Amino acid sequence: ALIFILAHNGVRPLFLRVLTGVAQQSLNLTVMVFVIFLGATVFSLVFTRLGGEAIVGEFLGNMPGGAHGAVLVVMVIVFILGMFLDTFEILFIVVPISAPILLKMDVDPVWLSIMLAINLQTSYLTPPFGFSLFFLRGVAPPEVTTAHIYRGIVPFVGLQIICLAIVWIFPQLATWLPAVIYG
């Protein structure tokens, strides 16, 4: 309807083609996300129905260190998966399986969410499929090689891991503001 109105008010055909292209790309991306969400939901439901959640719960519950050991295992798994999968797949598959178990172990949901967000951002920078690296490769000049980019991200990944460790040691950094706002 918007395109029809714009077309009859003297808007140039080039603008309409651009607007149509952008709308089509947005639709494609939205459909892709919903297909991933649907597939992940079906996987999670089947996984839960077949007793997978109980197995994962038992596995995480038997980790040395209790809740902290379980969170550490989930963080390592998320980090490794982040090297190969996109954020959506990890959020739609790993979080519904592991988060309820961790929350039953009295892990703070705000702290866990912040830890997962930092972890996913860190893994988004790591090879072999660091998606941010491919975006950077696309805009870098030709004399900057992929090897240069891989070596260049090492300090940033190190800083992200240090940030993750700091939030692990001082969970108040992630929880104090929501506690102040929401009581």
Throw out a few tags for this protein:
single chain, 183 residues, mainly alpha, 10 helices, globular
In a few lines, what is going on in this structure?
This protein is mostly helical and 183 residues long.
Written account of the structure:
The protein is an all-alpha fold. It is 80% helix and 0% strand. It has helices spanning 2-8, 13-49, 52-61, 67-82, 87-104, 109-123, 131-139, 146-152, 154-169, 172-182. The radius of gyration is 21 Å and the shape is globular. The mean pLDDT is 85.
Overall, the morphology is globular
Strand fraction equals under 5%
Radius of gyration: 21 Å
The pLDDT mean sits at 85
Question: Low-confidence spans: pLDDT under 50, at least 5 residues?
Answer: none
Approximate helicity band = over 70%
Taking the alpha carbons of the first and last residues, their distance comes to 45 Å
Order of helices and strands: HHHHHHHHHH
Task: Count every helix, treating DSSP H or I runs of 4 or more residues as helices.
Answer: 10
